[in-house]
């Protein structure tokens, strides 16, 4: 998988070595990037116009897929997750109503602007610095079409950095972040990769895109993870003390003094009994109802969210984890979308 994902980059390196003019390569890359952003922009415009024409929506969730897996340190299967999550959302084995009664079939509740074409962009030799900027710009394009709010389908957890950056830059200030995960993902860099899926929250915190970061469900944390947490003032809630912390976590109020709250939900925050289809299986996690209790009771204006690290290549035959990820997306949709009273 890692070799396949890097094939495009190697191809363009060979062209460079063959003395193909750098200007020709850069012009080609720019055309692909422009086309990619145009696709997201026009789809977001269409969905935004539809929601505004229907009227009544204060905030509307809009799916944006970011099928990126090459920054994973172990397996790259999360790149294949967005279409599987969409399939599970609409598969028909359950109805289109969220637990609090919102109807996903209503475009004022949920729309979809498609995927950032990550692999096509990388096949042109675009490096991660530029790719991350493209992801940030894609998020901004969705947010420009009020009342759309991006609900991002990963992909590995490295996508959270560019997504949060885009959100923070668009709203003009830092957000509060609720991060559910087995791991803190706050290494300064991991295996020499500053964009590793083990490092997005270091990038977010050092850039000042978050005022407050709460990490919930931790049960695989190194000394560096703890040190980085202290360095950035992160509120880390470990599973070993969850029974003690439950009342706090099921009664959170976030966002006072900032312009919004961001939720980042790594599927491996759940115990693998509930979600085996992840790259890093870590026993002893949250139950599915634990997660929903935290989300349902959260008092916050959620301006954006992501669901990451579902790995279809490790899912069960019946696609159980796909349905779990889809259910998380559905309930996040209900949390984010708002109608006028």
Automatic annotation (TrEMBL):
Q: Which UniProt keywords apply?
A: Arginine metabolism, Hydrolase, Manganese, Metal-binding
Q: Which cofactor does it need?
A: Mn(2+)
Record's InterPro entries? Answer: Ureohydrolase, Ureohydrolase_dom_sf, Ureohydrolase_Mn_BS
EC number(s) reported in the record:
3.5.3.1
Please list the GO biological process terms of this entry: putrescine biosynthetic process from arginine, via agmatine
Cofactor: record remark: Binds 2 manganese ions per subunit.
One MF term in GO for this entry?
A: agmatinase activity
- Similarity-based family: Belongs to the arginase family. Agmatinase subfamily.
Gene3D superfamilies from the entry? Ureohydrolase domain (3.40.800.10)
- Domain of life of the organism encoding this protein: Eukaryota
Signal sequence coordinates: none
Q: Which organism is it from?
A: Vitis rotundifolia
| Binding-site positions, Mn(2+) | 157, 181, 183, 185, 266, 268
Pathway-wise, it operates in: Nitrogen metabolism; urea cycle; L-ornithine and urea from L-arginine: step 1/1
Cite a single Pfam family from the UniProt record: Arginase
Q: What is this protein called?
A: arginase
- Catalytic function, reaction form: L-arginine + H2O = urea + L-ornithine
């Amino acid at each position: 998988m890692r070799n396949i994902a890097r094939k495009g980059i190697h191809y363009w390196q060979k062209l460079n070595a063959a003395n193909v003019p750098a200007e020709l390569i850069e012009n080609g890359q720019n055309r692909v990037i422009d086309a990619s952003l145009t696709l997201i922009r026009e789809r977001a415009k269409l969905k935004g116009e539809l929601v505004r024409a229907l009227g009544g929506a204060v905030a509307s969730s809009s799916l944006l897929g970011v099928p990126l897996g090459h920054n994973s340190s172990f397996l790259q299967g999360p790149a294949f997750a967005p279409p599987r999550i969409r399939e599970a959302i609409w598969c028909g084995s359950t109805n289109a109503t969220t637990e609090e009664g919102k109807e996903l079939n209503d475009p004022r509740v949920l729309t979809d602007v498609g995927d950032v074409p990550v692999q096509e962009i990388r096949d042109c030799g675009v490096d991660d610095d530029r790719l991350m900027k493209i992801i940030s710009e894609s998020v901004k394009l969705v947010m420009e079409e009020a009342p759309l709010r991006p609900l991002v389908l990963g992909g590995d957890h490295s996508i959270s950095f560019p997504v949060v950056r885009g959100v923070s830059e668009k709203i003009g200030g830092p957000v509060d972040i609720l991060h559910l995960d087995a791991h803190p993902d706050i290494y300064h860099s991991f295996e020499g990769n500053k964009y590793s899926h083990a490092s997005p929250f270091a990038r977010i915190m050092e850039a000042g895109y978050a005022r407050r970061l709460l990490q919930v469900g931790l049960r695989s944390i190194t000394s560096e993870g703890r040190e980085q947490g202290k360095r950035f003032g992160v509120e880390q809630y470990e599973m070993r003390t969850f029974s003690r912390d439950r009342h706090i976590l099921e009664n959170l109020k976030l966002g006072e003094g900032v312009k919004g709250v961001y939720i980042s939900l790594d599927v491996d925050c759940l115990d693998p009994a509930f979600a085996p289809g992840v790259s890093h299986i870590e026993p002893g996690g949250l139950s599915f109802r634990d997660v929903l209790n935290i989300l349902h009771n959260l008092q916050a204006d959620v301006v954006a969210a992501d669901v990451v690290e579902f790995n279809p290549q490790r899912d069960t035959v019946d696609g159980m984890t796909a349905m779990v990820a889809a259910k998380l997306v559905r309930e996040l949709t209900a949390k984010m979308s708002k109608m006028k009273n």
